[in-house]
Amino acid sequence: xxxxxxxxxxxxxxxxxxxxxxxxxxxxxxxxxxxxxxxxxxxxxxxxxxxxxxxxxxxxxxxxxxxxxxxxxxxxxxxxxxxxxxxxxxxxxxxxxxxxxxxxxxxxxxxxxxxxxxxxxxxxxxxxxxxxxxxxxxxxxxxxxxxxxxxxxxxxxxxxxxxxxxxxxxxxxxxxxxxxxxxxxxxxxxxxxxxxxxxxxxxxxxxxxxxxxxxxxxxxxxxxxxxxxxxxxxxxxxxxxxxxxxxxxxxxxxxxxxxxxxxxxxxxxxxxxxxxxxxxxxxxxxxxxxxxxxxxxxxxxxxxxxxxxxxxxxxxxxxxxxxxxxxxxxxxxxxxxxxxxxxxxxxxxxxxxxxxxxxxx
Length: 361
Prior knowledge:
- By secondary structure, the chain is an all-alpha fold.
- Helix content is about 70%, strand content about 0%.
- About 10% of the residues have low confidence.
């Protein structure tokens, strides 16, 4: 592919992979189609001939990739140092420094990956060796009829844990000490999981057992609140049967607004959250401040007229009009012999007159 048909990213990628040769990537100082292109093509052909590892695919895929990468890197490293890479438009160049930095980062990452791969391989080999030694020792003691040691018990526990899917990294390099630590960690995790499950089951059981008690308590609280509210209202209505009408009346509102601010706040508090006695006191103060109805004022100012005494029937000559006046006591005594006349006499007298007469007799 000609460099003019490639994007900047493709040019940089080709340069990193070592496939951007002088026949496709030309510099600004070397125009395309110069006489040096033939030499570059011959050099590339010669290089391709001398590196069969690139053109010949090996049977092992991994070896082929490594061989191709090495050959590509070697080819890329043969590019002139410091030569800028021409952009696709041909008007700009990519600094060679960026290409060098990308190559350095690539090589560092490859070296790090290879180091880690070697460490993993070494660790795996060491784990396998230590595990095999531990199993052989445990089997030898078992064949000899010796009692199981703590290391043997830890090995059996570790083997069971691995069979259950526990990560083998928990047991480190499978040395006796690492196996003991791994078994302790597995036991800790199992204990923590069991405790968590036990707590969850206990919480569920507790919630299930306490649910009826909680509902009963809520119902009791509601009943007590309703009872208290009913007693509160009953006490107020007993003192003022029309308490709700009083509280909603325009007269009560006008009286409340006429109070000072501190007194008005006290009235509002008593009506809203006060006790029944406080509400009754508010209504007492309101009713005392109101004028009495006109009908009650008239009835209170009117006096009952005294009943006219019945005309007295003369029972003797002295009772005849124009006769000489006789003392009332004497008249009563004179009637003592006539029960009917005495009864008529007394029936026409008031209670006060009777009491006065009895005092004089």
